[in-house]
Design goal:
single chain, alpha/beta, Rossmann fold, five-stranded parallel β-sheet, 44% helix
């Protein structure tokens, strides 16, 4: 068990992003699960029930948005941080309906991502 007891699923098809994000989160005391595409992330989420999802928008198998939609269909709305390529945005309705609480553009600061994770988890616990 980790010191804060929270599990975060990181889904991104870019290995270096999974690695950097995982390291930052583990160093902050989180348990981290990783997936390299949307389908793998869906399977891990259903099995492991993480507290938070960090997902890339553009991934093989299922996009980040499709992943969030599938989780919602299974009554597993997970609070989500969506990573996107610069200049890409989702409609507010898509983010609201699918539990996407924050959008971060790549490249992003790992420190800023960690602060965002901590803020979201703290606000959900309150």
């Amino acid at each position: 068990m980790t010191e804060n007891g929270k599990t975060i699923l990181v889904a991104d098809d870019e290995a270096h992003i999974r690695s950097v994000v995982s390291l930052k989160l583990r160093n902050a005391g989180f348990k981290v699960l990783t997936a390299q595409d949307g389908q793998e992330a869906l399977e891990i989420a259903v099995q492991e029930r993480p507290d938070l999802l960090i997902t890339d928008y553009q991934m093989p198998m299922l996009s980040g948005l499709e992943l969030c939609q599938r989780l919602r269909q299974q009554n597993m709305g997970l609070p989500t941080i969506m990573l996107t390529a610069r200049g890409y945005s989702l409609e507010p309705m898509d983010t609201e309906q699918n539990g996407i609480l924050r959008m971060l553009s790549k490249p992003f600061s790992p420190r800023h991502l960690l602060a965002t994770v901590q803020d979201l988890l703290a606000s959900r616990a309150a």
